[in-house]
Write a structure and sequence with these properties.
The protein is α+β, with helices and mostly antiparallel strands and 110 residues long. The protein has a domain of 69 residues. Strands 1, 2, 3, 4, 5 and 6 form a 6-stranded antiparallel sheet that branches. The radius of gyration is 20 Å and the shape is elongated. 3% of the residues are buried.
C-alpha cells in the first residue's frame, strides 16, 4: 500500500512542509494499523503439507510478519540455521520483508 499527500496552496508559505508532515503524523498510525490487520488476515496462520512433513507458522507482531516455525521435509529450518540443538530452547522467530511484489516476501534472519 502506498499513498501520498498533496497540499495545494496559493502564494508563498513557509508552513506548507510542516502542514504536510502533520498530515502524515496523523494519518500514518491508522494506515499502519489497517495494513497490519490486512497482512494478518491474508498471511497469519499455520500451513502443513498433506503428509505433515512440512509446516510453516506465520504471525503479525508489532506490524511485522514473522515466521515462528518452519519445517521443510522434516527439517526444522529455524533450529538448523540458528544452531539451536537444545530441545528445550526455542529458535528465534524471523521476520519477512516484502520484496515489493504482491504476495512475495524475503526472510530476514540474524
Amino acid at each position: 500500500m502506498a499513498y501520498g499527500v498533496a497540499l495545494l496552496t496559493t502564494g508563498t508559505s513557509d508552513a506548507a512542509g510542516d502542514i504536510a508532515l502533520d498530515i502524515f503524523r496523523h494519518i500514518q498510525p491508522t494506515l499502519d494499523l489497517i495494513l497490519a490487520r490486512e497482512v494478518a488476515r491474508l498471511y497469519s496462520g499455520q500451513w502443513c503439507t498433506d503428509g505433515g512433513d512440512s509446516e510453516i507458522v506465520l504471525g503479525v507482531d508489532d506490524g511485522s510478519l514473522w515466521i515462528s516455525k518452519l519445517v521443510l521435509n522434516g527439517t526444522d529450518v529455524l533450529r538448523l540455521t540458528q544452531g539451536v540443538a537444545d530441545a528445550l530452547k526455542n529458535p528465534v522467530p524471523i521476520t519477512l520483508w516484502s520484496t515489493g511484489r504482491r504476495h512475495e516476501f524475503r526472510s530476514v534472519g540474524l
